[in-house]
Amino acid sequence: MKYPFVRPKFYLRLINDLARFIAQPQYASLQNLTVKNKIYDTMGLFLIKLAFSLLVANVLAIFYEPKNITDANMAERFTPLAYLMVGGLILPLYEEVCFRLSLRFKPLYVALTFATLTYYILTKAIYKTNLSLVDETFYSRIGLSIGFGVIAFILMYRKKIHQKLTVLWENNIRWIYYLSCVLFAWLHIFNFELNLTNILLLPILTLPQLFSATIAGYTRLSFGFRYPLFVHMGTNLLFISLSFLPLD
After folding, report:
1. Exposure check for the chain: N or C terminus, fewer CB within 10 A?
2. In Å, how far are 37, 69, 82, 205, 237 from 105, measured between CA atoms?
Protein backbone atom coordinates (compact mmCIF):
# COMPACT_ATOMS: atom_id res chain seq x y z
CA MET A 1 0.00 0.00 0.00
CA LYS A 2 2.13 2.90 -1.28
CA TYR A 3 1.08 6.48 -0.60
CA PRO A 4 -2.54 5.66 0.35
CA PHE A 5 -3.22 9.20 1.57
CA VAL A 6 -3.41 10.54 -1.98
CA ARG A 7 -5.90 7.90 -3.13
CA PRO A 8 -9.64 8.70 -2.87
CA LYS A 9 -10.43 4.96 -2.73
CA PHE A 10 -8.47 4.73 0.51
CA TYR A 11 -10.76 7.27 2.21
CA LEU A 12 -13.92 5.76 0.69
CA ARG A 13 -12.93 2.37 2.09
CA LEU A 14 -12.32 3.87 5.54
CA ILE A 15 -15.68 5.65 5.50
CA ASN A 16 -17.46 2.45 4.44
CA ASP A 17 -15.71 0.44 7.18
CA LEU A 18 -16.61 3.07 9.78
CA ALA A 19 -20.23 3.27 8.60
CA ARG A 20 -20.65 -0.50 8.79
CA PHE A 21 -19.21 -0.52 12.28
CA ILE A 22 -21.46 2.31 13.50
CA ALA A 23 -24.50 0.45 12.13
CA GLN A 24 -23.47 -2.75 13.91
CA PRO A 25 -20.80 -2.19 16.57
CA GLN A 26 -19.01 -5.34 17.66
CA TYR A 27 -15.72 -6.61 18.96
CA ALA A 28 -14.06 -6.23 15.56
CA SER A 29 -11.29 -8.67 14.79
CA LEU A 30 -8.75 -6.77 12.71
CA GLN A 31 -5.71 -8.02 14.56
CA ASN A 32 -4.51 -9.64 11.33
CA LEU A 33 -3.68 -6.19 9.98
CA THR A 34 -0.05 -5.19 10.23
CA VAL A 35 0.92 -2.34 12.54
CA LYS A 36 1.78 -0.33 9.44
CA ASN A 37 -1.73 -0.75 8.01
CA LYS A 38 -3.31 0.07 11.37
CA ILE A 39 -1.28 3.28 11.47
CA TYR A 40 -2.30 4.12 7.89
CA ASP A 41 -5.99 3.57 8.69
CA THR A 42 -5.75 5.55 11.92
CA MET A 43 -4.05 8.48 10.18
CA GLY A 44 -6.59 8.33 7.35
CA LEU A 45 -9.45 8.49 9.84
CA PHE A 46 -7.68 11.37 11.57
CA LEU A 47 -7.66 13.32 8.30
CA ILE A 48 -11.34 12.53 7.67
CA LYS A 49 -12.18 13.63 11.20
CA LEU A 50 -10.16 16.83 10.75
CA ALA A 51 -11.92 17.70 7.50
CA PHE A 52 -15.35 17.00 9.04
CA SER A 53 -14.63 19.07 12.16
CA LEU A 54 -13.40 22.05 10.12
CA LEU A 55 -16.43 21.83 7.84
CA VAL A 56 -18.90 21.79 10.75
CA ALA A 57 -17.05 24.59 12.57
CA ASN A 58 -17.00 26.84 9.51
CA VAL A 59 -20.64 26.22 8.60
CA LEU A 60 -21.73 26.81 12.21
CA ALA A 61 -19.65 29.99 12.42
CA ILE A 62 -21.79 31.51 9.66
CA PHE A 63 -24.82 31.44 11.95
CA TYR A 64 -23.48 31.14 15.50
CA GLU A 65 -20.03 30.96 17.09
CA PRO A 66 -20.07 30.31 20.85
CA LYS A 67 -16.90 30.96 22.83
CA ASN A 68 -15.03 27.90 24.08
CA ILE A 69 -14.55 29.04 27.67
CA THR A 70 -12.51 25.96 28.61
CA ASP A 71 -9.86 26.66 25.97
CA ALA A 72 -9.82 30.35 26.83
CA ASN A 73 -9.44 29.58 30.54
CA MET A 74 -6.57 27.14 29.96
CA ALA A 75 -4.80 29.57 27.63
CA GLU A 76 -4.94 32.21 30.38
CA ARG A 77 -3.78 29.93 33.20
CA PHE A 78 -0.96 28.07 31.48
CA THR A 79 2.22 28.98 29.69
CA PRO A 80 2.28 27.77 26.05
CA LEU A 81 4.40 24.73 26.95
CA ALA A 82 2.19 23.81 29.92
CA TYR A 83 -0.90 24.32 27.75
CA LEU A 84 0.51 21.88 25.19
CA MET A 85 1.34 19.35 27.91
CA VAL A 86 -2.00 19.56 29.72
CA GLY A 87 -4.34 20.12 26.79
CA GLY A 88 -2.44 18.07 24.23
CA LEU A 89 -1.23 15.10 26.29
CA ILE A 90 -2.72 14.80 29.78
CA LEU A 91 -6.37 15.62 29.04
CA PRO A 92 -6.55 13.35 25.94
CA LEU A 93 -5.15 10.48 28.02
CA TYR A 94 -7.70 11.23 30.73
CA GLU A 95 -10.61 11.35 28.28
CA GLU A 96 -9.58 8.17 26.46
CA VAL A 97 -9.37 6.29 29.76
CA CYS A 98 -12.71 7.77 30.79
CA PHE A 99 -14.65 7.01 27.60
CA ARG A 100 -12.79 4.37 25.56
CA LEU A 101 -10.55 2.17 27.70
CA SER A 102 -13.36 0.04 29.12
CA LEU A 103 -15.06 -0.61 25.78
CA ARG A 104 -13.21 -3.90 26.20
CA PHE A 105 -14.14 -5.33 29.57
CA LYS A 106 -11.50 -5.88 32.22
CA PRO A 107 -12.00 -5.05 35.91
CA LEU A 108 -9.00 -2.70 35.87
CA TYR A 109 -10.24 -0.92 32.73
CA VAL A 110 -13.74 -0.38 34.12
CA ALA A 111 -12.38 0.71 37.51
CA LEU A 112 -10.15 3.32 35.83
CA THR A 113 -13.09 4.52 33.74
CA PHE A 114 -15.28 4.67 36.85
CA ALA A 115 -12.64 6.69 38.73
CA THR A 116 -12.07 9.18 35.90
CA LEU A 117 -15.79 9.59 35.26
CA THR A 118 -16.33 10.18 38.99
CA TYR A 119 -13.66 12.89 38.86
CA TYR A 120 -15.45 14.47 35.90
CA ILE A 121 -18.83 14.49 37.66
CA LEU A 122 -17.36 15.80 40.92
CA THR A 123 -15.46 18.54 39.10
CA LYS A 124 -18.22 19.74 36.78
CA ALA A 125 -21.47 19.00 38.62
CA ILE A 126 -20.52 19.18 42.30
CA TYR A 127 -17.59 21.58 42.63
CA LYS A 128 -18.30 23.43 39.37
CA THR A 129 -14.67 23.99 38.49
CA ASN A 130 -12.17 22.99 35.78
CA LEU A 131 -10.71 19.52 35.33
CA SER A 132 -7.17 20.85 35.13
CA LEU A 133 -7.47 23.38 37.96
CA VAL A 134 -5.43 22.56 41.06
CA ASP A 135 -7.37 24.41 43.76
CA GLU A 136 -8.55 23.69 47.29
CA THR A 137 -10.97 21.05 46.01
CA PHE A 138 -8.42 19.20 43.83
CA TYR A 139 -7.24 16.67 46.41
CA SER A 140 -10.81 15.97 47.54
CA ARG A 141 -11.80 15.28 43.93
CA ILE A 142 -8.77 13.08 43.34
CA GLY A 143 -9.14 11.22 46.66
CA LEU A 144 -12.84 10.48 46.22
CA SER A 145 -12.35 9.37 42.62
CA ILE A 146 -9.53 6.99 43.52
CA GLY A 147 -11.56 5.64 46.43
CA PHE A 148 -14.59 4.88 44.26
CA GLY A 149 -12.33 3.36 41.62
CA VAL A 150 -10.68 1.03 44.15
CA ILE A 151 -14.07 -0.07 45.49
CA ALA A 152 -15.31 -0.77 41.95
CA PHE A 153 -12.14 -2.76 41.17
CA ILE A 154 -12.52 -4.91 44.31
CA LEU A 155 -16.20 -5.60 43.62
CA MET A 156 -15.61 -6.54 39.98
CA TYR A 157 -13.00 -9.10 40.95
CA ARG A 158 -15.63 -11.12 42.78
CA LYS A 159 -16.17 -14.17 40.58
CA LYS A 160 -19.93 -13.88 40.10
CA ILE A 161 -19.84 -10.14 39.41
CA HIS A 162 -16.91 -10.59 37.00
CA GLN A 163 -18.74 -13.30 35.05
CA LYS A 164 -21.97 -11.33 34.84
CA LEU A 165 -20.22 -8.15 33.68
CA THR A 166 -18.22 -10.08 31.07
CA VAL A 167 -21.45 -11.45 29.59
CA LEU A 168 -23.10 -8.02 29.85
CA TRP A 169 -20.29 -6.39 27.86
CA GLU A 170 -20.25 -9.11 25.20
CA ASN A 171 -24.03 -8.99 24.71
CA ASN A 172 -24.40 -5.21 24.83
CA ILE A 173 -21.26 -3.78 23.27
CA ARG A 174 -23.44 -2.00 20.71
CA TRP A 175 -25.21 0.07 23.36
CA ILE A 176 -22.05 0.55 25.44
CA TYR A 177 -20.33 1.94 22.34
CA TYR A 178 -23.26 4.27 21.54
CA LEU A 179 -23.42 5.44 25.17
CA SER A 180 -19.69 6.19 25.26
CA CYS A 181 -20.00 8.24 22.05
CA VAL A 182 -22.96 10.30 23.26
CA LEU A 183 -21.48 10.87 26.73
CA PHE A 184 -18.15 11.97 25.28
CA ALA A 185 -19.84 14.39 22.89
CA TRP A 186 -22.54 15.84 25.10
CA LEU A 187 -20.33 16.36 28.15
CA HIS A 188 -18.32 18.76 26.00
CA ILE A 189 -21.22 21.19 26.37
CA PHE A 190 -19.39 22.26 29.55
CA ASN A 191 -16.77 23.81 27.25
CA PHE A 192 -19.33 26.51 26.49
CA GLU A 193 -21.41 28.85 28.60
CA LEU A 194 -24.49 26.99 29.83
CA ASN A 195 -27.12 29.34 28.45
CA LEU A 196 -30.42 28.38 26.82
CA THR A 197 -29.13 28.80 23.26
CA ASN A 198 -26.12 26.54 23.79
CA ILE A 199 -28.19 23.89 25.54
CA LEU A 200 -30.76 23.84 22.72
CA LEU A 201 -27.94 23.62 20.17
CA LEU A 202 -26.12 20.92 22.13
CA PRO A 203 -26.40 18.20 19.43
CA ILE A 204 -25.04 20.59 16.78
CA LEU A 205 -22.32 22.21 18.90
CA THR A 206 -20.99 18.80 19.91
CA LEU A 207 -21.33 17.19 16.48
CA PRO A 208 -17.54 17.19 15.85
CA GLN A 209 -16.99 15.47 19.22
CA LEU A 210 -19.68 12.90 18.40
CA PHE A 211 -18.02 12.07 15.08
CA SER A 212 -14.64 11.93 16.81
CA ALA A 213 -16.06 9.52 19.40
CA THR A 214 -17.40 7.16 16.74
CA ILE A 215 -13.94 6.98 15.16
CA ALA A 216 -12.16 6.64 18.49
CA GLY A 217 -14.46 3.82 19.61
CA TYR A 218 -14.02 2.05 16.28
CA THR A 219 -10.22 2.23 16.34
CA ARG A 220 -10.12 1.26 20.03
CA LEU A 221 -12.18 -1.90 19.46
CA SER A 222 -10.52 -2.75 16.16
CA PHE A 223 -6.85 -1.85 16.64
CA GLY A 224 -6.23 -1.20 20.33
CA PHE A 225 -6.24 1.60 22.88
CA ARG A 226 -3.10 3.42 21.76
CA TYR A 227 -4.49 4.25 18.30
CA PRO A 228 -7.39 6.53 19.35
CA LEU A 229 -5.16 7.92 22.09
CA PHE A 230 -2.54 9.08 19.59
CA VAL A 231 -5.23 10.51 17.28
CA HIS A 232 -6.77 12.42 20.19
CA MET A 233 -3.39 13.77 21.25
CA GLY A 234 -2.51 14.68 17.68
CA THR A 235 -5.77 16.58 17.19
CA ASN A 236 -5.43 18.56 20.41
CA LEU A 237 -1.76 19.34 19.86
CA LEU A 238 -2.55 20.55 16.34
CA PHE A 239 -5.34 22.92 17.34
CA ILE A 240 -3.52 24.21 20.42
CA SER A 241 -0.44 24.90 18.29
CA LEU A 242 -2.57 26.76 15.73
CA SER A 243 -4.01 28.92 18.52
CA PHE A 244 -0.52 30.29 19.16
CA LEU A 245 -0.29 31.72 15.64
CA PRO A 246 -0.80 35.49 15.34
CA LEU A 247 -4.12 36.36 13.76
CA ASP A 248 -3.09 39.77 12.47
Report:
1. C
2. 25, 34, 33, 31, 29
Q: Has residue 248 been placed in a domain?
A: no
Angle between helical axes of 207-222 and 159-186 (0-180°, round to 10): 150
In a domain, 178, yes or no: yes
Q: What does each C-alpha distance from 89 to 180, 193, 236 come to in angstroms?
A: 21, 25, 8
Query: Does residue 228 form part of some domain?
Result: yes
Task: Report DSSP state, residue 124.
Answer: I
CB-based contact 217:180 (threshold 8 Å): yes
Could you list the residue range(s) of the whole structural domain that residue 111 is in?
4-243
Residue positions counted in the chain: 248
Largest CA distance in the chain: 63
- Residue pair 62/77 in contact (Cβ under 8 Å)? The answer is no
Calculate mean pLDDT across residues 147-156.
94
Find the mean pLDDT for residues 28-38.
Answer: 76
CA distances from 204 to 51, 165, 232 (A): 16, 34, 20
Determine the distance from the C-alpha atom of residue 212 to the mean position of all C-alpha atoms in its chain, rounded to a whole number: 7
69 or 172, which is more confident: 172
For residues 111 and 154, give the distance between their C-alpha atoms in angstroms, rounded to a whole number: 9
Q: pLDDT confidence of 181, banded at 50, 70, 90?
A: very high
pTM attached to this predicted model: 0.90
Domain count, the chain: 1
Q: For residue 200, how many other CB atoms are within 10 A of its CB?
A: 10
In a domain, 173, yes or no: yes
**Helix or strand holding residue 92 (H, E):** helix 91-99
